[in-house]
Amino acid sequence: MRKIIRMSFMLAVTMVLFACGNDNTPSAAAEKAAKCLIDEDYEGYVDMLFITEKADTDKAKLEEQKAQYAAALKDKMAKSIEKEGKKMTSVKAVSEELSEDGEKATVTMNIKYDDGSEKTDTTKLRKDKDGNWKLDVGK
């Protein structure tokens, strides 16, 4: 009986530890956004953008703007792939640097392409009002 109780306790502790894993990090958010581009999920990518909402923001208008931005991004990505002749295949965050206040971050990413080439690039992120990391496309 003691063994069953001990095993149950160890299983519960293990499950709690795994549940506490945090995927709300700048690196995880940057990788998720890049994966959206790889998978051609432009709406998902737009959802990863930091957008300052004002109290009087019309939700329907905001959704329409997001849809328009996703369509423009799809067109831009298609033109870029056609021009460069290569497409991203994987992205891996190699480092992240947080601001002193912990509200902004810069993530350095290693990007691999289908032609075998690689590139290192940086992505800026900031926390939204809910504390989630989003891509900072502002200045």
Task: Tag the structure with descriptive keywords.
single chain; 139 residues; alpha+beta; four-stranded antiparallel sheet; 4 helices; 24% strand; globular
Task: Describe the 3D structure.
It is a single chain. The chain is an alpha+beta fold and 139 residues long. The protein has 4 helices and 4 strands. The protein has helices at residues 2-19, 26-38, 42-47, 59-84, and strands at residues 88-98, 104-113, 118-127, 133-135. A 4-stranded antiparallel sheet has the order 1-2-3-4, covered by helices on one side. The protein is globular and about 45 Å long. Mean pLDDT is 84; it is low at 9-21.
Radius of gyration (CA) equals 20 Å
Structure summary, number of beta strands = 4
Strand-residue fraction? 15-25%
Strand order of the largest sheet: 1-2-3-4
Oligomer, anyone? Answer: single chain
Overall shape: it is: globular
Topology order in helix (H) and strand (E) letters = HHHHEEEE
Major beta sheet summary: 4 strands, antiparallel
- Percentage of residues assigned to helices: 40-55%
Tally of individual helices: 4
Structural class: alpha+beta
Question: Regions with pLDDT < 50 over 5+ consecutive residues?
Answer: 9-21
The average pLDDT score comes to 84
Distance between the termini: 63 Å
